[in-house]
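The methods section describes the discrete structure representation at length, but only in general terms. What matters is that the chain and its backbone geometry are given together, residue for residue. For illustration, here is how one protein appears when written out as sequence plus structure tokens:
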Amino acid sequence: MEFKEFYWRKLPHIQPLGGMFFVTFNLKGAIPKWKLKQLKEEREVKYLQILKRSQNKKRDLETLSRKMFIKYDKYLDSYSNSKMYLKNEEAAKTVADSLHFWDKKKIELLCYCIMANHVHVLMRLFDNSETETPKALNQVMHSIKLYSAKKCNEFLGLEGNFWEEESYDRLIRNRKELRSIMRYILNNPVKAGLCKEMTDWKWSYIKEEYNDIF
């Protein structure tokens, strides 16, 4: 897969080497097409309003992006008819193994949470000073999703696309935002009513040096 520091599909993706990224990826069909269309149309209306009326477009577009993601993520947690393949222990372990595979090779794996139909992960890309062959985020994610999809399809008896093709990713700007995103990730099962404490969820991980957020 081609190295891309910036590209645009349904969403913009800015992926500099050395950057820290909050990534969310979900199962194919985890959100129905009608809901995706509704969210897209809502975003486009608000986007155009900001372009026409805002006195601070950068700030307001950032706010819009966060608000629309929260709506998207809330729907993933609440949609009862969604495919829930990651409830399967072997499937969840396969995804966890695929995330850990690149840790200390091309990325620093900071935090993740594997839910029934989606995954949140926080990682830092290695740059040229840390590896002779750095990978862009789209390359790392392609590998993670390709490997886990193949394995999960095999033992679940499935065919076709396991993951939604495009992932959501956000470049983390500072330490304060980093810790805020970590709490958001690890609190996902609590917010969804699946456990009482962040530490109770089996398929969560945080790098040891950040354990003070609990």
Notes: The domain at 18-29+83-209 is CATH 3.30.70.1290 (Alpha-Beta Plaits).
